[in-house]
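We emphasize that the prediction below concerns an isolated chain of 425 residues; any contacts that depend on oligomerization or on bound cofactors are therefore not represented. The input was used exactly as deposited, without trimming of termini.
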Amino acid sequence: MEHAHTVVNPLWIIPFVLLLAMIAVMPFVNGDWWGRNYRYVAIILGLTTAGYYFFGLDNGARVLESMHEYVSFISLIGSLFVVAGGVHITIRGRSTPVENILLLAVGAVIANLLGTTGASMLLIRPYLRNNKYRLSPYHVVFFIFVVSNIGGALTPIGDPPLFLGYIKGIPFFWIMERMIQPWLLVLVLVLAVFYIIDRRNFARMSAAMREQVRRENDSTKLSGMHNLIFLAVIIGSVFIEHPVFLREALMIGAAVASYYTTKKDIHVKNHFTFHPIEEVAFLFIGIFLTMLPALDWLSANASQLGISSAGGFYWITGALSSVLDNAPTYLNFLTAALGLAGLEVSNQAHVHQFLAAEALHVVAISAAAVFFGAMTYIGNGPNFMVKAIAEHAGVKMPGFFGYIIRFSVPVLLPVFLLVWLIFFS
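Result of the prediction step, given as a token string:
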């Protein structure tokens, strides 16, 4: 949806910053209090920002637009979470570094067919079980890097930003043709770093334990296969635009049908609970509302930021996609890029004209929105869900800043810098 530039007081970005700070700090300061009250904090800060739009700016329509986007967002990831929770996958139990690499690589490919959320929810539990003998936080972090983000950079189904581009008129296979090289580069480099770390971890196991892991020979088994039908319904409904909320209704209906037709023992084997999606639902309703002033300020001032090159759009889109939802960030900077050329993103003829003249700008914005979503837990919807599932399985995951300092900055930032140097500088 398009909206006129909203002139906001930049001080109203504070609730968003405050929410991010509390997500990052409170689990360490007082984890018990935060666990009981995070939902109230998110809602209060979100409603405060909504009140500013309704009564201070007389622009309640902007809030309703954001809530429409939120309903679409939570319907998609929530329904995929429920349906994937009804599929139990038993993979050959050997968690050698090579087999972990293969599983992550397959997940990256699947992400382009099921979306990063669908692939993450389908594979995270078997991935955790497969590494049960030596499960470490880095296993989950690299799963977030590869399956929950980087993998979905080739198709509009892969990640929500690319789907928004498809809706605006970018041809379905256009991005794949131009993103395949950056995608392969990032994927190979990140998996190479994972292999080095995982090989060291594997080598620290006792010889007897390594031999036991190698001898594990469980055959691959799938239970709850009827849920693949519901999964197909959800993926297919992504392309429905009218009437309003039919898409979301189909997703929710598929999730409800999946939950009640799945045998209880499958949910038990998957340790399925609604806690991960509940946490995402409450935190992201706060994020969707409190980030409105930040997004609107960016939209109104994009032309004043002095950004005109593909590389400039790569870095600004990436930086904001790390801490804002990457879908609206993508759309804002795609709008800004077309605006600098005197074109409108709402006009498909203009979009096609821009693709012909400035393809590199669109590729840079697309790559940044997808890749940089892996930089923080809140950069992309599946990140928080995978973290919550892993913690429920007993993995002691790094906190908000620990994730950034220990993993995303030293691993991802050099790779993304190389992408910029090769493709967008």
